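To whoever is covering the structure queue this week,

Two jobs came back overnight. Logging them here so there's a record in the thread.

Job A:
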Amino acid sequence: MKKNDIAIIMAGGSSLLLKSSFSPVLAKVLGRPMISSVTEAAARAGIEKIIIIIPVGDTQIRALIGQEFSEKNIKFIEQDMPLGTSHAVLQAQEDIKDASECGGNVLVLNGDTPFMDASTINSSYLQHNAMENDVTVITATVGKPFGYGRIIRDGERRFAGIVEERDADSDTKRITEISSGTYWFKAETLLPVIQNLTPRANGHFNLVDAISEIIKEGKVADTFFAPNSDIILGANDRIQLMELNEYAKKQEIAYHLSAGVEIPYSDGVVIEKGAQIGIDTCILPGTIIKGNTKIGKNCVIGPNSVIEDSIIGDNVKLNATQCENCVIKNDANIGPFVHIRPNSVIGEHVHLGNFVEVKNSNIDTGTKVSHLTYVGDSDVGKRVNFGCGTVTVNYSGKAKYRTTIGDDVFIGCNTNLVAPVKVGNGAYTAAGSTITEDVPEDSLGIARARQVNKIGWKIKK
């Protein structure tokens, strides 16, 4: 890319068809907003300046892109009225003028085409420059062209224009080569055309008409055929959005299968882009892997597990487990019905059994927390055994405190450890105890009333 090339992403579409209070470009495909995917494609292609056209008063798109691409040169411009695609691009006329004065090009993208990629952008750019085109339209062939602009060619198969669905006659509607809605323009050609474009009967100014004007002026207009037709796919309603997600899900599963991951049944399996999974790991039905998750080799994940932004070691078993922002080390055996909350580290060979919750805690090697236990804000040593029903009582009502448990500790059933409290190495707590003071190492902590049997109490009552 030249330093003077810019990208303009149109993100001002109406959310009426999606029946949503959010902008349609914020709709998610495999867990990621579509506008994020498009912006990333432009950035990866090497375009240094990206302009996003947003509706007046938008804060959601600004916040999302500003957070996700804070290191990129991204500018937001508001469009007062949604008066068509050419009108949207015209909002960036000062930036187009700057590019024009330096011999730059303008890439125009739709913010709701999540499969647009850097490879297509770069390849079309090379052709656009090599042929010295004034405009290059990225096209693709699809089996169901309904709703897309058709590519019109003359008798010598030269590009002659784009006809939108609503303007197409029956013969034109049979054309299967369609416009992706992504274009390269010479900046010096684009600016005067969109500044002087005549509106349609509905008052809208469309880029399709701008391209027709460029052709009428005898400028060089051509197409770049994208071998991957996925790049044109978008969503105008909830049904199409579901179809995008289904398609993306199948593609991602196929990628991991080809990389050596075992997915015997895909029912309910969702793997978001960016997840890394080691060879011979088995993903069972109902498993959702989200965000920047990394899973090691020879694991069994699922069924019915959710993993988000977590690091999972090798030979780990996660059965009906939910975990987010945590680390689970090699050979851990987790589940069923376990919730591991953020900032937790589960050590090697740790077992967490049914109905265990761990939050903001470190559990070291070989510890067993078999059932019905809450471990919160705690640092737990090696080879500790938790009896059923144990609770680390971490909240006083005003502040949270930590519990520290040493190595080789035995926690009796139904023990309450009221933080801040420490249990030393090798110590025991008696079943049913509420421990409020430190237990020294190799000691037994008992904190319960002596049993008293009142003979005949029931008869008297």
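Job B:
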Amino acid sequence: MSNGLPLVFDGHNDTVMQLVRGERSFFDKSETGHIDLPRAREGGLMGGFFAVYIIDPNVAEIMQKARDEGRDPSQALGEYAQQYADPANWPDPMPLDYAQTNALAMLGTLLKVAKESEGQVKIVRTAAEIEQCVADGTFAIELHFEGAEPLDTNGDALEVFYAAGLRSVGLTHSRRNIFTEGVPFAFPASPDTGAGLNEHGKELVRQLNRKKVMIDLSHITEQGFWDVAELTDAPLVATHSNAWNLSNSPRNLTDKMMDAIKESNGVAGLNFHVGFLREDGANDADTPISTMVEHVVYMADKMGVDHVALGSDYDGATMPAELKDAAGLPKLMQALADHGFDNDDLTKIAHGNWIRVLRDTWGE
């Protein structure tokens, strides 16, 4: 970057949800959403984990009805999401064919973006490819499942999606699936909210380990976290979770969980969503960047700077207004520098720690 700050490889975004619906182009600068290629270039974002998240069928119907009525579908989703605060109201696990159809549409969209970019965008499958993207300015997309709903218990779909470029899987979102369950949308609450992995979930961890696919522990219950820790032979990773002691959201990490991430040589990525940053858990965009810095400092003090990265949740959450979108990333990096993180530390947080943990997990 011209300002001397390191390029950012981000641990989580939901951008493809907007692209697949044709709401905007990845190549044109937009005033909506958080990531497109022009704003990424402006902010020094050189790529990241692009999440395939499948909306529950009944939520999809609610959002489509809102579009048909000329209302903002994201607002309709937000209204429905309040029901996810109570696991008793969670929908049944979605049908496999529905999940796979939607996953294919999203993966296809990202593959088309790379093809149509004329070399500006690359689907990355190795840590070396990410390093090369950092060096030559290519935008790097890592294909990620936020929720294992498109996967079957036999591992057949995993083989196909892996061949398409899938390299990381979050086991669940804030709901149940056939493998495990996540934490609810609640505040304040402990991440110790429900069951861990069932036998299918334990087998899925083994399948992912055999394929050297990274397992993402953001969203899973604390019991699920410890179940994975007991089974996996890879570093523990939470792509977009903060410090629970600073913000008592069940989506955040307790000190004990951060100790385990450190001991496994894993990584946790700072989530930019204001509700996971604020002490009061409020969905208030009037949240200063200094609050983000407080979480980074806490996580670095607890785990060491080698285990802290960024996992924005762009295009899927409420950003601090001061930051706004991907073009605002230099404000965060400068705030970290002003706090006292040196250039080596900033480089690790910005992209180095992701490259290291992915190389350790992928083996290439």
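Note for Job B: The chain has a mean pLDDT of 95.

Please reply-all if you pick these up so we don't duplicate work.
Q.
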